[in-house]
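Appendix B. Worked example

We walk through a single record from start to finish. Start with the input: the chain for 4,5-DOPA dioxygenase extradiol, Pontibacter ummariensis, length 274.
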Amino acid sequence: MSSLQTLQNLNNSLPKLPYKMPVLFVGHGSPMNAIEENEFTKGWAQMAEGLPKPRAILCISAHWETRGTYVTAMEQPRTIHDFYGFPQALFDVQYGAKGDPHLAEELRLLIRKTELQLDHEWGLDHGTWSVIKHIYPSADVPVLQLSLAKNQAPAWHYELAKELSTLRTKGVLMIGSGNIIHNLRLLNWQKPEEAYDWALDLNEQVKEFISADQHQPLIDYQQLGKAAALAIPSPEHYLPLLYTLGLKEAQEQVTFMNDQLQLGAISMTSLKIG
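Next comes the structure step. The output line below is what the pipeline stores for this chain.
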C-alpha cells in the first residue's frame, strides 16, 4: 500500500468534523501543581469548560527535547516523573490516559517539513500530565506528545505547527505546555510575590503582540532586548508558545488566563485560541 493510500485510510478513521477545536497554551510552572488545588489548576480546569470533548490530545511539552522530531506512538504511554526533590505523593501519581498509534501514524504521514519518527519509549512527562490531569481528570482522552527538535530555530517550530492545523477539524486538542518567562536561576525566594520589572514588561509585551496578531516579533524574540534575554535564557519553555501561535488563524479570539508571575521569574500566563 502506498503512503497516500495509507494516509487516506487513516483520514477515514479520523474524519473531519463540522467544528474546529481550540488551541491551548499552558504555563505549567512547578510539578507540585499536579497534586495541588490552587488558582492555576482551577484555571486549567476552566479551559475545558464549553469545549467539545476531544478525540485525542497532542501536547508539545518543554520537557521532551530531541535531535530530530518524534511523536509518542505506544498504546499505553507511561507516566514519567522527570524531577527530583519533591514529596513522594508527586511520584505516586499515575495518569493512565491511553495513546493513539493510528493518530501517530497519521501525523507521520501528514508532516512534510521533517521526517517524523514514531517513539515507543518516552511516554507523558510532567509538562503534559501535570496539566492534563486537571483538564481531563478521568484520563479518558488519548494523549500523544510531540517532541521539540532542539537543533532547530524558532521559525522552524512555528512553521511546523502550521502543518498540524488540519487536526483541529478532526477533534484533536493541541496544547503547548511551557512558560513564557522561565528563569530558574533568578527565582525570588525572599519576596515570592514580587515580580521583576523585566519579567512584567516582557509578559505584557508578549501579550500585546499576541493580541495584535503580530507573531514575527515573538518568533524573533532574541531581538527583543535584555528583558527577553533574562526571561528566556533557554528556548525549551518558550517554544511551545510558538506551536500554539502557529496554529492560530486570522481573527480568532485569544483569551488569557492565569496571568501571573511566580517567584519573580516564572510566568503562569496561559491562553486559549478559538
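Two observations about the output. Residues 3-273 form a domain with the Protocatechuate 4,5-dioxygenase; Chain B fold (CATH 3.40.830.10). The beta strands are 23-27, 56-66, 69-72, 116-119, 143-149, 172-178, 254-257, 261-262, 266-267, 270-273.
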